[in-house]
Amino acid sequence: MCRVRLRDVEVEDWRRVGDEGRGWALLDGALAIERTGIDHVVRAARWLRALRATVGRPRGLERLEGQVECATTLARAATEVFLRADVRAIDTAVAKLYTSETCQQVGHEVLRRWSTLARTPGVDDLVHEELFSGLTESPGLTLSAGTSEMMLSTIAADLKEEYERRCLAILHRFGGELVDTVLEVLGPMGAGVRVEPLFAHSPARRTALAETLADLGLDGVERPEEEGGLGLGLTVGCAIALGLGYLGYENAYRSCPLPTDRTGAPGAADEDSHGGCAAPECRLRHAAHALGLGLGLFRTAWEHACAREQFDRKLVDFDALMFPLVRGYAELNAVGTRLHELAEHVADVDGEVLGRFELVAQDALVRVVRAAMQVLGAQGITEWSVASRFYMKCAESIGFLDREGTAAGG
């Protein structure tokens, strides 16, 4: 690397790209568009295969494998944005950030195990080369084509201007008009259900929510047409669950019967978890609701940062405070993209793939919650504040993504 300094350079106006004095900002955005992350996920998949060929399939690699699957879906989606006329830097900055950091985590796993891997007998030469590639190349993945800090800066600049629109963009992937309907009806007026403190356990509110969804004709969107439904599929059902979570409501949308006990009576499990139902459709609906809660908490924290001032500056302008939350937005975006793909092809999704996704979603939501509460400060831990109740609701919902822990607990 060489440092080149240019002094007293004059350029004619017609040769200048962009506005005067905005060269760095233009370069910052261009670097985000330079790569979609395809190169990162290809390397990550190769290194992961080499790891599995050497160490087998230890449980510790499941979450990492799930992250690579999420990153691959996100990278594919990033290539599609170039078919639009309104491509923006954030569209690929999110993919570049998530895929490069995911790939680097695979390299870090090689680093962590390197002293053992290097001495493992009988390792194929090509496998060893892949592992050595992961060891040596991974440090530069968050530097080339724009550092992670530059990607975070690009995403943050966009979120400062339209954070709510960016949150809604994740929801709209599942069904724009339907999501807007849910938010418009339940958001401003609460459909008469906010008669108790927000998020307090309230069977009455759940019933009112379910009745409102039925009045809108949304209770049967997944039900086959021959059974009186609309037959629109799981993706639309996830859109409803996402909208409810985004507003902080219980997941009153249900498209499957409650589980029964050995006597055939309805089970007593938490309704928000769909009774802990193991059906892929129910697990994905619950993941959608949990994602909506995470987005709602992110939005609440960002609104607070835009309004709150400290040392004569708004919190949103403190990069050290906001970057973890910005990275959380990128993770929620990746989780939402992967969730949409799984919902679209639920018939082909097996339990292992779904389990890996749930591990990734749980991990991402935990980090978002931590970052959001740090931004919210004292307001986030004030009992019955919106932020505090989002926190508790996230805690209740995230746990049900832990199928391994649930099974271990009985």
TrEMBL record:
SUPFAM superfamilies attached to this UniProt entry: Acyl-CoA dehydrogenase C-terminal domain-like
InterPro entries from the UniProt entry: AcylCo_DH-like_C, AcylCo_DH/oxidase_C
Domain Acyl-CoA dehydrogenase/oxidase C-terminal: 61-158, 283-393
Transmembrane segments: none
Assigned keywords, A-Z: Flavoprotein
Protein name: Acyl-CoA dehydrogenase family protein
Organism: Kitasatospora purpeofusca
